[in-house]
Amino acid sequence: MKRSYIVIPVLAVSLGILFLSCKSTPATEEPPPPAPVETPAEPPAPVETPAPVETPVSLDALNEAIARAEAARQRAADFDSQAYFPSDWETAESQFAAAKNLPATTASEVQQAEAACNEVAGVYDGLFNKAVPLYAQAREDEIIAERNDLISTGVTADYPQPLADADVITLKALDQYEAQDYYAAKETAAEALEIYQGLNTAAQAYLTRGEILDRSFDFYDPANFDKADEVGLSAVDAYEAGDLSTAKEIAEEALLRYNLVLNTGRASYAADQGASAGAERQIALNAKANVAVREMFNNANDLYNKAAGSMEAEKFEDAAAMFYDSEVLFSDAAKAAEEKRRIAEAAILAAEAKMEASDEAARQAEIIIEGDLQ
Question: What is the pTM of this model?
């Protein structure tokens, strides 16, 4: 304990001495700080202006306008506007192409393009409205013409029901047109026209078959004739089943085969007529008709040569008719030549008899004269 008390005063004295010695020593001056080195100021960084944020432009309205114009264009084309009004159609086409190529990057540009497309749609609608009545009249004319052709065959007098059925469909098309249901009317009119055409083809096949039988032309091509009959029955079956397109196609095949038979028959018949005319011509030549009745023979021969020319041109009906007529003329010429020869021979005989009578009279006269002299 005592030792610690002694240490404390000692420490205190020591600290005092140290303090005094530090106070009495002059303070050393520190060197002035170095002058700051001025560095050149860096140029200020450019201030970047943020790019303006573009508000996206909606093209929905423009696309709808283009779609309206496309639809209007299709309607006009479906009713042959381009055929009825070619100049107006070309103008509309150019206008539509220009409208679709207009810029459409801003709202204002989109509005202008939309307005242009709507205007074109109106132009196409105008063409459609003008074309519809013309189109309808053209289809009506076609139907009436086909119907009249069918009636003119005379077949409908014996088979009236198919014509009546077709007329019902035609009237339906008319009702649809008057109700302004133009597309439905168009389809129904096309159906009616197809029926009339099919019936007309069937009627022609029926008449051609009748001509073949009346002229016995089936003899010249029996295979095609039998096949045509078979095909014709199939056409009837298809028609009764309501398959009008198939019935029309099959009827056309039947008519084609009947026409082949008919043409073969006409060619063969014309050839037969030519052979007959040639034989009659030779008879006339043997009778010296070319001398005795030259004009008659030449008329027949001219017609015969024309018939031969028609035969080469495959105008068999004309050739057959002219061969037949020339045959008659050759026969008449031969008969006329024979008659002329008979008359000439009779005249010669008469002359000879007359000469003989004259000779006898002269002889008798001579006898009398001689008797008188005696």
Answer: 0.68
